[in-house]
Amino acid sequence: MLLCRRSLAKSSWMSSARSLGRRHYGVPPVVGASDPRLDKTVQVTSSKGVNIIHDPLLSKGTAFSLAERERLAIRGLVPPRCQEMDKQLLRVKRNLDDCRTPLAKFVFLSALQDRNETLFYRLLINHLEELAGIIYTPTVGLACLRSHSIYRRSRGMYFSTQDRGAMSAMVYNWPHDEVDVIVVTDGSRVLGLGDLGANGMQIPIGKLSLYVAAGGIRPRSVLPVVLDVGTNNESLLNDPLYMGMGHPRVEGEDYYSFVDEWVTAVKSRWPNALIQFEDFKYPHAYNLLNKYRNKVTCFNDDIQSTSSITLAGILAGLKARGKKQEDLNQERIICVGAGSAGVGVCEGIIDCMVAQGRVRSRDEAYSRIWMMDQHGLLGNPALSAEDAAQQTVARKGERTQLDERQQCYVKADLPDRLTLEEVVERVKPTAILGLTGIRGVFSEKAIRTMAKYEEKPIVFPLSNPDTHAECTAEEAFAWTEGRAIFASGSPFENVNLPNGKIGRTNQCNNSYSFPGLGLGITVSRANEVTPTMFLETARVIADMASPAQLKQGTLFPGVANLRDVALAVGTRVCEVAYEEGVATAKLKEGELLSEVVKNSMFQPEYVPLVHHSYH
Ligand SMILES: NC(=O)c1ccc[n+]([C@@H]2O[C@H](COP(=O)([O-])OP(=O)(O)OC[C@H]3O[C@@H](n4cnc5c(N)ncnc54)[C@H](O)[C@@H]3O)[C@@H](O)[C@H]2O)c1
Ligand SMILES: O=C(O)C[C@H](O)C(=O)O
Ligand SMILES: [Mg+2]
């Protein structure tokens, strides 16, 4: 396992893009909230008695020592025997295993998180592979669909259309002064499930649980947020249990000024917090990113961290084929889905080709990519003029106007709206990426044709949850005679192949990239999130699998290793922040960044509690 111990600036293909020596060591000592120098051996609280037992950040359940029970006035309020965490873990794991369905497990784990976060995170870290699929994708998707039925207790903050003018005051309702990471959604495109309005809250909660478990951000420093601007989901609007605003989505200038009020409010209370935009529909996702990327420390997960992990998957896939990462410009890549994630992923691939210096221009890099939406290839309407009318009828519906960004991907030399099968036949792709949210978009014919021309086709159905993947792992291996290099957004089991071998599956999800990005950004207190951070994240992850793993088709370390991945990514991102002069945290001379990052990572352990009244 690669654990980053490199000194600054060792990247092979990024060095030309860097300007070294711009490190800011002279800025005021803004010490990160997750900085090890703030670590304490005791935790001081002004709470006492039941307030401690009912505070998930302080509660230890049955694990309070007798001395603590005495000094915190909780003697007699919990069962008499002091049980350490190992016994508690046994109990909660047994209870969890008794839950019959993934959704029941989700409800159980949420309740545990609401009672005792230390125990919740220890359980989660100990069983990351098993539980990531519950608190995160794919089960979190089901939890969003049912959120208004399974609701027990509030977590995070909601800002709705009835809060216009009040947001700057509302942010002070949050009980913590230190907030390092905020994940915010407007619930307009939740995974591949569409508009789920305020039910989308489960997504920021799940993302932030991984920020803590994998990225080592402290539980008290994370804030999940929903911006409730209404929903266009009729079934939610008509459901008496739905808890969000009961009107259609606010759009246009009203929408952008609403988000602006929220950003201003958040930055006024927590100027250093990283904002992660999550599951905003296209084009809002891009418009918000463009508006805020140079003003506040923020990124869009679906556009940018997805591009990191997908690029990492392709680069590792090249190595699995016995090629070099620098051969990326030889690939022919079809990206099905031209929305936030699709465009973001393609831009990441292009950035990488340009950074590698193996293409002369971005245009040349574009020439290796073919982008498609539900109407087919983004091609040249002039070339398909003859049968355009016919096609419009046959394929139902007009393509909505392509925006400037999507326009970049239009192929001038190919007819607009070619089907996937037609594009595959003409282009002979080496890789196909699915970012549509639509099950079954990778047809058998298309994948079989691809496998005719490419010995080891890269097949990445990246849409979530699993029920919305463009194809299953079984299909991908069956249609390629077991030769596919396979990665999906949601987890799929390995596949037993007819020849007795195993078709290895990989999970290519931004959960591999955002925890480390957030870790590096918060430790360095970066005041800007730069493109290099995403490229380097990809490079670090692409280098993590061993040659033997790559040979078998394993591209990344398993989900159980997400913490190691976050540490490696976090260290590199932190280095980049100093190299590019965007870090504001003071670094002591001689401090090894990898150690600073590692020591800053939250460990779920019970710390002695001490009562102190500040009045
Ligand atoms: N694996 C990951 O880490 C990851 C990250 C981000 C997004 N995603 C997934 O990607 C999907 C899309 O997300 P997004 O933010 O880009 O959404 P989006 O709504 O912005 O884009 C979806 C795109 O798919 C196109 N599309 C719809 N139906 C199609 C069809 N039948 N054939 C071809 N194209 C079709 C749309 O025109 C649009 O361009 C979601 O399911 C999401 O879960 C996965
Ligand atoms: O949430 C995920 O699992 C990945 C991604 O952010 C998505 O929207 O699908
Ligand atoms: Mg997302």
From TrEMBL:
Its cofactor is Mg(2+); Mn(2+). PROSITE patterns: MALIC_ENZYMES. GO terms for molecular function: malate dehydrogenase (decarboxylating) (NAD+) activity; metal ion binding; NAD binding. The keyword Cell membrane does not apply. Pfam families: malic, Malic_M. GO terms for cellular component: mitochondrion. The active site is at Y136 (proton donor), K207 (proton acceptor). Keywords: Metal-binding, Oxidoreductase. (S)-malate binds at R189, N464, N509. GO terms for biological process: malate metabolic process. Residues 113-293 form the Malic enzyme N-terminal domain. The keyword Metal-binding applies. A divalent metal cation binds at E278, D279, D302. Divalent metal cations. Prefers magnesium or manganese. Residues 303-578 form the Malic enzyme NAD-binding domain. InterPro entries: Aminoacid_DH-like_N_sf, Malic_enzyme_CS, Malic_N_dom, Malic_N_dom_sf, Malic_NAD-bd, Malic_OxRdtase, NAD(P)-bd_dom_sf. Belongs to the malic enzymes family. NCBIfam families: PRK13529.1 (NF010052). This is Malic enzyme. It comes from Absidia repens.
